[in-house]
Specification:
Keywords: Cytoplasm, Cytoplasmic vesicle, GTPase activation, Membrane. With 199 residues, the protein is mainly alpha-helical. It is 60% helix and 0% strand.
Length: 199
């Protein structure tokens, strides 16, 4: 079976109609190889030791959350990631029953998407943590410019669509805030992101 026939049929369809698709796992592998997220130290010989420290830290934080009864074996893994991140960043609420803040909902959406791509829970947590930190610290100031950049790009790629969206006053109603703050995580059904073989 060829590579194309194994891909999600939506990816093939989107490419045929002009939307360039991205294979999530391949993109993640490239990011990890280049280590643009700062997940691994620059010296390869220390990777094993760093991963050991990170596993220990993961276990310690998870144990602390269990002791204070914020998580249990029944807690969904994405919520465990959120509570670990909150504890490490000093933002753990007084009670797990407090409603989620908007930034927590962003974290959960990104964590759900990442959980689909990364099998190991320790690796998944560290990737989510570093990704969210990069998003919050490095790219936060550029988020307000993204709607304008999106419109400029859409104008280059499909000016008729942009004109139509403007004519029916839909441009101002697009969920830019949701899309860009979450990096599109949770904006598409998970089934459209999964890679499946075709019959």
């Amino acid at each position: 079976m060829t590579e194309d026939s194994q891909r999600n049929f939506r990816s093939v369809y989107y490419e045929k109609v002009g939307f360039r698709g991205v294979e999530e796992k391949k993109s993640l592998e490239i990011l990890l190889k280049d280590d643009r997220l700062g997940i691994l130290p620059p010296h390869h010989e220390s990777h094993t030791q760093v991963m050991t420290y990170r596993k220990e830290q993961y276990s310690d934080v998870l144990h602390a959350l269990r002791v204070v009864r914020f998580v249990s074996d029944a807690t969904p893994q994405v919520e465990v990631y959120l509570r670990m991140y909150q504890l490490e960043s000093g933002k753990l609420p007084r009670s797990p029953s407090f409603p989620l803040k908007p930034e927590d909902e962003v974290f959960v959406a990104i964590a759900k998407a990442m959980e689909e791509m990364v099998e190991d829970s320790v690796d998944c947590y560290w990737i989510i943590r570093c990704f969210v930190n990069q998003l919050n610290n490095k790219y936060r100031d550029s988020l307000p410019q993204l709607p304008k950049a999106f419109e400029q790009y859409l104008n280059l790629e499909d000016s008729r669509l942009l004109s139509h969206l403007k004519t029916c006053s839909a441009v101002s109603k697009l969920p830019y805030d949701l899309w860009f703050k979450r990096c599109f995580a949770g904006c598409l059904p998970e089934s459209s992101l999964q890679r499946r073989g075709l019959g």
